[in-house]
Specification:
- By secondary structure, the chain is of the alpha+beta class.
- It has three domains: 3-91, Rossmann fold; 119-186, Dna Ligase, domain 1 (2-Layer Sandwich), CATH 3.30.1490; 190-427, D-amino Acid Aminotransferase, Chain A, domain 1.
- 30% of the residues lie in helices and 26% in strands.
- The protein contains 13 helices and 24 strands.
- It has helices at residues 10-20, 51-60, 71-75, 78-83, 98-101, 103-113, 126-134, 159-171, 239-259, 293-297, 305-314, 390-403, 417-426; strands at 3-7, 28-32, 42-43, 65-68, 88-90, 120-123, 140-144, 153-156, 182-186, 191-199, 204-206, 211-212, 215-217, 221-224, 229-232, 266-274, 280-286, 301-303, 322-323, 327-334, 358-362, 365-367, 373-375, 379-387.
- A five-stranded parallel sheet has the order 3-2-1-4-5. A five-stranded antiparallel sheet has the order 12-15-20-24-21. Strands 6-9-7-8 form a four-stranded antiparallel sheet, with helices on both faces.
- The protein starts with a strand and ends with a helix.
Length: 427
């Protein structure tokens, strides 16, 4: 099989790493890829939104299966475009990808399907939104409805803070078109959980659960980011809870999307808040693998990933996926100035003697004309470690993060702290 992975971030590097085990030499391509994917397959200098050039490349390289990583090309209809040429694609249609591309649409789907989620209202005009906030309990959450690179959800401790966020979106255009429609919702108490499920539109194969760390600083302080690290497994995700998520969240969402003529095939991501009673409420849906969840989930998959992706793309029954029992921790290294104004161009040094079982996934990197590796984005690298225990995986991931150097490097040393605390309490 010849496979093309579309995208150039850490998720796509992790995908290429995981798929490479099942593919013969020369069978893996990535567009546009990054310095990490270049070591695993053939990078094609084609952007994820260059649909015409991607279509030509798929034909020229006789690609059997295209796997679309980022949400933006899915929302713009890349899967539809590839399917129209008779080729297989793993990723939802543009109509189904609205489950992520429009939080307002996602709320409509959840309401119609009876999926548990926070109470909310949607607005396109500033004044009604401000008046609604005056009547809303504190805290509350203001979300840009469209795609905002994971930064469009603002948790507001006060009504005044919520009004500032609404004004920035609806009047000042902070998130551009993504913020022209906003969703104001009640703040959910509990613990977050990331569930990623491969689906052919009817059945689901749930991948290992993970927990992301959104805040920039240790102790879950500082501004929200696209994700500063993740860990898996999560003891909170018991078999009973996963069965409930499948029954009450995933399958109802698929049924409602199909009813709306938007059959979903690919990875359906449910970002959940688990309350004190163990009830899962949906915070958000995504239409693709998470980032950095991919970097911690995919290394735990031993076999079956490519087969499952291929079956989902072909609309066939899903094949089983085997999961490693070891723990995995991913620590994200961010550039100086992230998340507001990440600096680019700093030289990166990755030592050759990182701890065994440690993987470094490239996200925002590039090589200059002299071949020197440099920073090229906000989240630069993700260091993942596999180990028999969560404590050891965290120690090795952190050691790898400390060993890599570039000016202004930012990273958290407490990834997985909730799980380690839970383990200590049980002991």
């Amino acid at each position: 099989m010849r496979v093309l992975v579309v995208g150039g971030g850490g998720r796509e590097h992790a995908l290429c790493w995981a798929l490479r085990r099942d593919l013969p030499f020369g069978g893996l391509f990535c567009a546009p890829g990054n310095p990490g994917t270049a070591e695993l397959g053939t990078n094609l200098p084609i952007g994820a939104l260059e649909f015409d050039r991607l279509s030509v490349a798929i034909q020229d390289h006789d690609i059997e299966l295209t796997i679309v990583g980022p949400e933006a090309p899915l929302a713009k209809g890349l899967a539809d475009r590839i399917q129209s040429t008779g080729r297989l694609v793993f990723g939802p249609s543009g109509s189904a990808a609205r489950i992520e591309a429009s939080k307002a649409f996602a709320k409509e789907v959840m309401a119609a399907a009876g999926i548990p989620t926070a109470m909310s209202h949607t607005f396109t005009a500033l004044q009604p939104a401000l008046e609604y906030v005056d009547r809303h309990a504190e805290p509350l959450v203001v979300k840009a409805s469209g795609l905002a690179a994971g930064k469009g959800a603002i948790v507001c401790a006060s009504r005044a803070e919520a009004k500032r966020a609404l004004t920035a979106m609806l009047r000042d255009g902070r998130f551009g078109d993504a913020g022209k429609t906003v969703v104001i919702e009640a703040f959910l108490e509990g613990e977050e959980l990331s569930i990623l499920a491969v689906t052919n539109g009817e059945e689901v194969e749930i991948l290992p659960a993970a927990q992301d760390h959104k805040r920039l600083l240790e102790g879950d302080r500082g501004p929200n980011t696209g994700g500063m690290g993740a860990y898996s497994p999560v003891s909170l995700a018991t078999p009973a809870l996963l069965a409930r998520v499948k029954r009450d969240v995933l399958l109802p969402a698929l049924t409602e999307l199909a009813r709306r003529q938007a059959r979903f095939s690919g990875v359906l991501y449910a970002g959940l808040m688990i309350d004190a009673a163990g009830v899962p409420n949906v915070v958000e849906f995504n239409c693709r693998l998470g980032d950095p969840e991919s970097q911690v989930v995919l290394p735990r998959i031993k076999t079956g990933l490519l087969g499952s992706f291929h079956a989902a793309a072909a609309g066939k029954p899903l094949t089983p996926i085997a999961v490693d029992d070891q723990a995995a921790v991913t620590t994200v290294l961010a550039a100086a100035g992230y998340p507001e104004e990440p600096r680019r161009g700093d030289r990166i040094t990755i030592p050759a003697d990182l701890p065994p079982g440690t993987m470094v996934f490239h996200a925002g990197t590039h090589r200059d004309e002299a071949g020197v590796l440099r920073t090229e984005g906000g989240r630069v690298l993700a260091v993942t470690a596999l180990a028999p225990t969560m404590e050891k995986a965290l120690a090795e991931s952190r050691a790898g993060a400390e060993a890599i150097s570039f000016a202004g490097k930012q990273f958290r040393k407490d990834i997985g702290w909730r799980e380690i605390r839970r383990t200590a309490i049980r002991l």
